[in-house]
Structures are given as C-alpha cells and as structure tokens.
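Inputs:
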Amino acid sequence: GESVGLHLPTLSVQEGDNSIINCAYSNSASDYFIWYKQESGKGPQFIIDIRSNMDKRQGQRVTVLLNKTVKHLSLQIAATQPGDSAVYFCAEGRGGSEKLVFGKGTKLTVNP
Amino acid sequence: EAGVAQSPRYKIIEKRQSVAFWCNPISGHATLYWYQQILGQGPKLLIQFQNNGVVDDSQLPKDRFSAERLKGVDSTLKIQPAKLEDSAVYLCASSLGAGVKAFFGQGTRLTVV
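Outputs:
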C-alpha cells in the first residue's frame, strides 16, 4: 500500500560528522514534503520543507534532497551536534486536502 | 509569536471513562489538525479542520472519538468511552492553510489503565 517510510530506524554518528537520514515515499502524486525533529516529550518541530518542483533546498546546517525518479527524500545535517539527537520524521503531503502523512521516524544519536 | 497551546499535558483515566483535550492554535492559522502518536510510531492524522469545517476525518474512530472547532479557533478532541489502545500522545498542529508547514503543540500524553 501507499506509505511514507524510512530506511533505517536508528542512526548513530560522532559529533562533528555529517548525518544523512533517508525517507522513501510511494505516492507519485505527493508534491510536498517536510522534515520534522521530535525530541523526547515534545511535539514535532519543523526543520525544512520542499515541493516537488525542486530537487534540493538548503537551510541552516540542513539540506533536503528530493529524487522524484526513485521517490526518495533525504535530510542531510552538517556538523552534527549533540543537540541534534532526536527522532526525525519525514511527512508527505498528499491528496486534495494536503494532509500530512508521517513515516515511522529515524532515531538519531550523536555521540560526543 | 505564541505557539500551539495544548492542555492538559498529561492525563490518566480508566478504560470506559471519557476524556477531553483542548487546543489553541497559532493566531491566524486556518487549518488545525489532531494527530495520534503511539509510542515508537509517527503521528497519525485523526482529523483536519479548515476554519470550523472538517476537511478530513477518515481515520477518526467516530464511534468513540469526536472533535469540534467552534468559531474556527480553539478545538477540543473527546474520547468516550476510552479503551486501553487509546493510550498515546495526542498532538494538535496548525498551519496558515492546507499544504503548508504545520506547527505542533507539546501534546497531551494519555494513559488509559
């Protein structure tokens, strides 16, 4: 069935390294994608978004890449810091109502 | 700018009891969402409002869950009667409109015993 999912449930990196979190989607009609960060006990926090007419978008220390050919989305975090430790979700905007459908999430752990 | 406000933060009830959650979205945000997040999973949309009208409630268990957004601002989500499997965090989010980034509240952690 249609779903938004992530390739790896956990990711562990060293402080200062770059992190790459991946997401696969199956609905080719989706045209809006968002990455959220969720720390323990908190609600999801918006990181960056991208529309399907773009391949890449950069923010502060973060870059989102969209490959529509293989229906793949990635979040790159440069110079990962301990404060980046959290669960990261990609969300997909689909349908006429543009409701957001979330994947299962990837837990990022940054080791000092 | 004030964020999305939710209350209560925590709630423990017995099964078959009723419970209500409240959400105050960011001022000016026309779209309001209620999500259910079970431990270890991503948020699942329960209902989406555009102003005071329902846009999508396809995944809302309507036999026990209800939600309203009177006057197109605050919203309440009610569960009656609660089941053990309703234990989750209930997240409210709002956005300027559909198809744009949504901002989330802290959530209400519900435990049904």
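Remarks. Chain A has no helices and eleven strands. The longest strand of chain A covers residues 86-94.
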